Amino acid sequence: MTFLLSQIDNVGRSVARNLEYTARVLLMVYLSFRASFVDQAQGFRTIFSVVSMQIYFTGLQALPLISVLALGSGGVVILQSSTNLNLLGGTEMIGKLLVMIIVREVGPLLTALVVIARSGTAVASEVGNMGANREIEALESMGINPLSFIVFPRIVGGVLSVVGLAVYFVVISLLGGYFLTRLMHNLPFWFYLDSLTRSVAFEDIWLFLLKNTFSGTIIFVVSCYQGLSVKRSPTEVPIATTQAVVKSIIYVVVFNLMVTTLFYLSQLRKLGVL
User: Fold this and answer.
1) pLDDT digit string (tens) for 184-238?
2) Which of 113, 156, 164, 254 has a 20 to 30 Å separation from 58 between CA atoms?
3) 184: which residues sit within 8 A by CB, 6+ positions away?
C-alpha cells in the first residue's frame, strides 16, 4: 500500500512539474510577442535580421542533410511496398502509401528531429552562453528587451524554417519515390502525379501544417527557455542544452502522436466505425 501511494505521489509531482514548466514557457512566449508587437522595444530591421539569420542557419544549411533523409525515406517506402504492390492494389496505391507515410507521419517527424539536433542545441547553447557571459544583462542595461531581441525572432525564424524544410522533405521524397518506382515498374510520370494528387486531401494539408508549425514552435520555445535558464556559470550551458534536446524530443513526439491519434479517430468516426 505504501509503495502504491509513493508511486501515485511521484506521478502527481511529475504532472505538477510539467504543468508548471508549460505555464512558464507559455508566459515567456506571450511576453516575447508582447514585447515585439506592443512594446516595440526593437526596430523592425533588427528583428528581421535576426529572423533571417535563423532561417539561414536552420533552413538553408540543413538542406543537404534533409535531401539525403528524404531520398532515403521515399526509397524505403517504395522498396518495402513494391514486393507486395499487387496485393495492395497495384500501382494505384503508390500515391496513397506515400501520402499516408511521408506527408502525414515521416516528413514532419524526421524534419523536427533534424532541427532539434542541429538548431535546438545551437540555440540553447548560444542563449545559455549569452546568459553566462552577462550579455543578456548588458542588453537590459541598454534598455533592450531580451525577449524581443533574442526569443521572438528565433521562434519566428525557426517555425518558418521547419515548415519550409518539411515541404522540401516531402517534395524530395516524392521525387525519389517516383524514380525508384519507374525503375522497377516503368510507371509514367503523369500517372504517378495523378495518383498523388488524387490521394492528397484537405485533411492531409492541414494535418501537415499543424504538425510542422507546432513542432517548430515547441523546439525553439523550449530551446530558448532552457538557454535563458543559464544564469552565471558556463558549466550550466551543456546541462541546459541537453535538457533542451530531451524535452524537445519528448514534447514533439508526444504532440505528433496525439495529433495522429485524433486524426485517425476522426477518420474512423466519419466512416461510421466509431
Assistant:
1) 767 677 877 887 888 888 888 999 999 999 999 999 999 999 999 988 788 889 9
2) 254
3) 78, 82
181, three cell numbers:
518506382
- Chain-wide mean pLDDT for the chain? 85
Provide the sign of the torsion angle of the four alpha carbons 251, 209, 100, 262, taken in this order.
positive
The answer for 40, left when phi > 0, alpha when psi is -120 to 50, beta otherwise, is left
How many CA atoms lie within 13 Å of 195's alpha carbon, on the beta-carbon side?
Answer: 22
Q: Which amino acid is at 160?
A: L
